[in-house]
Amino acid sequence: MLVLEDSGSETMALWSAQRPLESCRTPAHDSLLFLLLSFKWVLLSRAQTADTGQGVMTPRLQRTSQDLSWQRSEPSIILPRALQVTETTLESGQNHLNLPAEKACPSGKETHVVDENLAFYEEWELEACVDGALLTEQMDRVNAIPFTYQQLDIFKHKLDEFYPQGYPESLIQHLNYFFLEVTPHDIHKWNVTSLETVKSLLKVSKGRKMDAQVAALIARYLVGGGQLDKATLDTLASFHPTYLCFLSPEQLRSVQQDVVWTARPQDLDSCHPPQMNILYSKARIAFQNMSGSEYFARIKPFLGGASTEDLRALVPQNISMDIATFKTLRKEVLLPLTIAEVQKLLGPNLVELKVEEGNSPVRDWIFRQRQDDLDSLGLGLHGGIPNGYLVLDLNFREALSGGPHLLGPGPVLTAILTLLLALILN
Ligand SMILES: *[C@@H]1O[C@H](CO)[C@@H](O)[C@H](O)[C@H]1NC(C)=O
Ligand SMILES: *[C@@H]1O[C@H](CO)[C@@H](O)[C@H](O)[C@H]1NC(C)=O
Ligand SMILES: *[C@@H]1O[C@H](CO)[C@@H](O)[C@H](O)[C@H]1NC(C)=O
Fold it and tell me: Which ligand is nearest to the CA of 260?
């Protein structure tokens, strides 16, 4: 996409912006994300100005500038989309290289209906004689005739060529079994506003390995403002819950309790704190009958939604929390824990604190402790409050140490420094 062809430092800013979005579970990350988003807006409008200012554009640039205008209407998902658009550009570039030279449709083979005869066409003949408009119009017949996988692949390719910006909703409504041909990547280009369409595609997907496609479909529907009803949420329960983080807290509340039994840690990676809170409550109820270590093994992926009290309840259970899990705890939840509590919570894994000494949230927790007390652990932890000192503004200190990504591009750093300065002067 155009922005990526811009100067190197701006490109870096976009890529590093990707990370906070996926892992933003703290307010500090949220505000950083906000800054980066604002920065991205500047870039986008700059990119557009550049487009209109230049007389000559390559087809690739024209295409990406259309993609940009499409993005603008959906600011809430602007970053993930930016990545997808880049992938599209790369992939379609490859497609062009792999395609054989276009051949004309042999005379007598021209077709205006999708019928059984097509099943006997050579692949190159299908490629030459069938077009996206015909397939769109007669998608019902495509699904009714037993085409081979290779033939369906060609149809898919013809449709992708015909709709480089994504299939129109009128076609999506009639996709039926052809939905099994599409990738999550394709789906992320779609607009899906009809719950009936979602339901029909879920029905087709049931019992097939379509979890990623289903997650993408649900994401597109929700991004467009769609509401899921109880029946649909129940249907969703039969898919692997890769879609959880796309659901709003309200929708998560209505999701069946069982979902916490099948959710894997990576399914929760991009969930925000309000979503984690709800998933954690569900998990706590679902696993309540389990004992100490068994319970901990189950509840582990959900602990990002736990409160300080929940963690304190785990302290006497000798669970020996691993440091990877400890890192997923929310900073504000972790900060009030005492050294003795953390020592008991981590058990033999306490030594791992040293490795994480420089990273949030361990770093933030260390800042809160007295250095003397840290020294008593004998781990060589640094960064505590020196003996006899009183640190007045911990938040300010934490903001200053806000991670390496702040030191990237000039404008962002300037914006942050300006903000800090404004705070100090007030
Ligand atoms: C999706 O909707 C937007 C806004 O209405 C529109 O600009 C875009 O072309 C639509 N995309 C597809 C694939 O229909
Ligand atoms: C927990 O166990 C009790 C009694 O054994 C049972 O009544 C209850 O339904 C169980 N709760 C869950 C969530 O499984
Ligand atoms: C935890 O360990 C301590 C000391 O080893 C022991 O006294 C206590 O009973 C254990 N608690 C549990 C819940 O296993």
Answer: 2
